[in-house]
């Protein structure tokens, strides 16, 4: 049972990381910044596939996070399509998109739980028997 819970927790964590990183990816694309790689997990790389857009989808060995590698994210590149050339408003949107996606995911999960509801209480479920002594 313990191993099953660990695996289930890891799968749920990877799903949350995927949603978070998808937020960064979508915001970058909408703001004209090129995405070089969308990676799930941390390297070393186990699998990778280049998309038509030139972006590399990668699955990595250590499932403890993920990343979106943007063009020009670590240098002062002012080339069109790079993170460095993006206006400040676009950079803020890209950086905050992951957190916003996490908040939206939490809201959706809470709404689903509220919609599903609580199980019905059985009559006399929480009564004390008359012959019990205190």
List low-pLDDT spans.
none
In helices, the fraction of residues equals: 40-55%
Number of DSSP E strands: 2
Q: Note the total helix count.
A: 2
Largest sheet: 2 strands, antiparallel
Which class do the helix and strand fractions yield?
Answer: alpha+beta
- Across the major sheet, the strand order is 1-2
Number of domains: 1
Helix/strand order, N-terminal first? HEEH
**Distance N to C terminus:** 38 Å
Global Rg? 23 Å
β-sheet strand percentage: 15-25%
Form type: elongated
- Give the overall average pLDDT: 91
3D architecture notes:
It is a single chain. 43% of the residues lie in helices and 23% in strands. By secondary structure, the chain is an alpha+beta fold. It has one domain (2-116). Strands 1-2 form a two-stranded antiparallel ribbon. Helix 1 (2-30) crosses helix 2 (88-116). It is elongated and about 85 Å long. 16% of the residues are buried.
Summarize the structure.
This protein has 134 residues and is of the alpha+beta class. It has helices at 2-30, 88-116, and strands spanning 35-50, 56-70.
Strand-helix topology:
Blueprint (H helix, E strand, L loop, with lengths): L1 H29 L4 E16 L5 E15 L17 H29 L18
Helix pairs in contact: 1-2
Output the keywords.
2 strands, 2 helices, 43% helix, two-stranded antiparallel ribbon, alpha+beta, 134 residues
